[in-house]
Write a structure and sequence with these properties.
Elements lengths: L1 H14 L15 H26 L2 E8 L7 E9 L6 E7 L4 E2 L4 E6 L5 H19 L3 H9 L20 E10 L4 E7 L1 E5 L2 E5 L12 E8 L13 E3 L7 E14 L4 E14 L4 E8 L2 E8 L1
Parallel strand pairs: 12-14, 12-15
Antiparallel strand pairs: 1-15, 2-6, 2-10, 3-4, 3-7, 5-6, 7-14, 8-9, 10-11, 12-13
Length: about 300
């Protein structure tokens, strides 16, 4: 009885068809029909294959919240070349509380200000990307995803052997500062710690040697993350006279980055510039935003 009921149930399932088929005796197979079926199955397979890669693609999702972390230190990553000798300039940080931060984490390296042909090509490409980013903000997502795969983000080393004198100074490294507004500036003379103020020893530097033409290869805040292009990366300014001052006013926003590859606490920032014929100095004045931006990667 059980075998009979199973057989009846199986026949019932076989007969149950929402789309009745034409009897096989009425069907005639042809080469053209087979070709059409093969093309259709191939197209469906390709669509399924590409849909899988679309599913694996990445979308950026932003969330904002109030930043409650006031006690930790903020890291500043610096790579700036100034067209003056290293013994003539000094860099330091002075925050809103008149706290002077030691620049022990910075290195002063004598270099040539002019770039080599390969470096100049890389620098021009970076400037073109920065120009496009100012117009098309969505390009940042594309660049972020592509650079995470291993594209270079730093100035490449020189491919030639320089013969000119090393008349410029590359200041690079990092500093840790308090999370308050402050000034990071590069000016004439080395910084002198003073309990009642802030001074630089500039009396021994000739006025004719003042030249604050500079190039900012990298300036970022927080943990360095590959793929993020900062607003001042690639900036190059040439002085018109000896008494020229460059100021960059920066607003920093803490950013938590979460992707399927990395998770990091970094920072984004916006910047406005000012150039004037005043006391020669290269100054970055940073202010802190009370909000945190969270950038998540989903795919």
């Amino acid at each position: 009885m059980r075998r009979l009921s199973r057989k009846k149930a199986l026949n019932l399932v076989k007969e149950l068809d929402a789309f009745p088929k034409v009897p096989e005796s009425y069907v005639e197979t042809t080469a053209s029909g087979g070709t059409v079926s093969l093309i259709a199955f191939t197209a469906m397979a390709l669509l399924a294959f590409f849909e899988f890669f679309v599913y694996q693609d990445t979308w950026m999702r932003y969330q904002y919240e109030v930043d409650k972390d006031f006690s930790s230190k903020l890291r500043i990553n610096i790579d700036i070349t100034v067209a003056m000798r290293c013994q003539h300039i000094g860099a330091d940080v002075l925050d809103l509380a008149e706290t002077m931060v030691a620049s022990d984490g910075l290195e002063y390296e004598p270099v040539i200000f002019e770039l080599s042909p390969q470096q100049r090509l890389w620098h021009r490409t970076l400037l073109l990307i920065q120009d496009r980013l100012r117009e098309e903000h969505s390009l940042q997502d594309v660049l972020f995803k592509s650079i995470l795969k291993g594209s270079p983000t730093a100035l490449p080393p020189r491919e030639d052997t320089p013969t000119q004198p090393l008349s410029a100074c590359r200041i690079h490294g990092h500093l840790y500062v308090n999370k308050v507004a402050g000034n990071f500036h590069i000016t004439v003379g080395k910084a002198i710690p003073h309990p009642r103020g802030h001074a630089h020893l500039a009396a021994l530097v000739s006025h004719e040697t003042y030249n604050f033409s500079h190039r900012i290869d990298h300036l970022s805040f927080g943990e360095e993350v590959p793929g993020i292009l900062n607003p001042l990366d690639g900036t190059e300014k040439i002085c018109a006279d000896h008494n020229q001052m460059f100021q960059y006013f920066i607003t920093v926003v803490p950013t938590k980055l979460h992707t399927y590859k990395i998770s990091a606490d970094t920072h984004q920032y916006s910047v406005t510039e000012r150039v004037g014929p005043h006391t020669p100095v290269l100054c970055h004045r940073a202010g802190r935003s009370p909000h945190t931006s969270t950038l998540s990667q989903s795919g």
